[in-house]
From TrEMBL:
It comes from the Bacteria. The keyword Kinase does not apply. Transmembrane segments: none annotated. The keyword Hydrolase applies. One of its GO terms (molecular function) is hydrolase activity. This is Dienelactone hydrolase. InterPro entries: AB_hydrolase_fold, Dienelactn_hydro, Dienelactone_hydrolase-like. Gene3D superfamilies: alpha/beta hydrolase. Residues 17-231 form the Dienelactone hydrolase domain. Keywords: Hydrolase.
Length: 236
């Protein structure tokens, strides 16, 4: 069951969705959306993480643009890309970082906090991890990034030392294989980084509401994600 909550930021209350595990407590995970917002797909993934024992929150990252519901319809991709172009990236990073800190302070969170991001959220999660490591806040205990769309422009300027797992398809229509390999070489310089690639998988291969969905790659990546999280954020 989803609870609607708010996270206090410098610009007001950021709307978010909260899921509790069956026990009511556990490690925390911030789920970061695709360009389509906190869609049904993102909510399903968040609910699955809660079911296996995590306290999960998904913030509405487009809230400063007045958008707090999923982008839908035949032109959803165009709408989503338009929102990203208008978005204040630095504010999105600080909003997501504030959500991490908010979750860490919750009584239900009895261990560390990680982040799982998809597409836009995958790149945002990487930037948030770097942001937290550069400040006085506690760093992320784990990061999972699915085909982070901002990573081509981030991996050479930002360093993340937190344990991280990256998933990329090798038939990505938006990030070519040469770029994927450059990202891999860069991020795996850190010892606690795992980088997985999927032959024949396109961008957004995990999203089963999209035509790019690759069931085999999605299943394998999710199993790897769950194993990675259980190792770094054990559920009691």
């Amino acid at each position: 069951m989803t609870e609607h909550v708010t996270v206090t930021t410098d610009a007001g209350d950021l709307p978010a969705h909260l899921w509790l595990p069956p026990t009511g407590h556990g490690p925390g995970i911030v789920v970061l959306q695709e360009i389509f917002g906190v869609s049904d797909y993102i909510q399903r993934r968040a609910a699955q993480l809660a079911e296996i024992g995590y306290v999960v929150v998904a913030p509405e990252i487009f809230w400063r643009l007045g958008v707090t519901s999923p982008v839908e319809g035949d032109d959803a991709l165009q709408q989503g890309m338009g929102l990203v172009q208008r978005l204040d990236w630095d504010a999105a990073v600080t909003d997501a970082a504030a959500t991490v800190e908010w979750l860490r302070a919750r009584d239900e969170v009895t261990a560390g906090v990680g982040a799982v991001g998809f597409c836009f959220g995958g790149g945002l999660g990487y930037a948030v991890a770097a942001h937290l490591e550069s400040g006085e806040s506690a760093p992320l205990d784990a990061l999972v990034s699915y085909y982070g769309s901002a990573l081509p422009g981030l991996h050479e300027t930002l360093t993340v030392t937190a344990p991280s797992l990256h998933h990329f398809g090798l038939a990505d229509s938006f990030i070519d294989t040469e770029t994927v390999r450059r990202i891999e070489a860069s991020v795996t310089e850190q010892p606690e980084t795992v980088f997985e690639t999927y032959a024949g998988a396109d961008h957004a291969f995990d999203n089963d509401d999209m035509p790019w969905h690759d069931p085999a790659s999605s299943t394998l990546a999710w199993a790897t994600t769950v194993e990675f999280l259980r190792e770094r954020l054990p559920v009691a």
